[in-house]
Specification:
Strand content: 35-45%
Largest sheet: 4 strands, mixed
Helix content: 25-40%
Structural class: alpha+beta
Length: about 80
């Protein structure tokens, strides 16, 4: 999904992260779910501080939430 050039640029941007960021995605049978999961897992390879995690929540559409230092931030992306 994300090409290697973008991933390398993101590694540079994220190298100074001081705290853990968790990308939490809900379970879904939506046709676009695999794209979301692939992107989240690729983003997690750009820094040891970025964690990809599947939640127990089920959603009809792809859903991604950001957690910071283990806490919900209120930032959620749908679709």
């Amino acid at each position: 999904m994300l090409d290697n050039n973008i991933l390398e640029q993101l590694k540079t941007v994220y190298q100074n992260l001081e705290n853990e960021v968790t990308l939490v995605y809900a379970k879904s049978t939506n046709a676009k779910q695999n794209d979301l999961v692939e992107m989240v897992k690729q983003l997690a390879t750009t820094s040891a501080k970025i964690i990809a995690q599947e939640s127990e929540e089920h959603s009809e559409i792809p859903k991604l939430s950001l957690h910071y230092k283990g806490e919900k931030t209120g930032i959620t992306f749908l679709g």
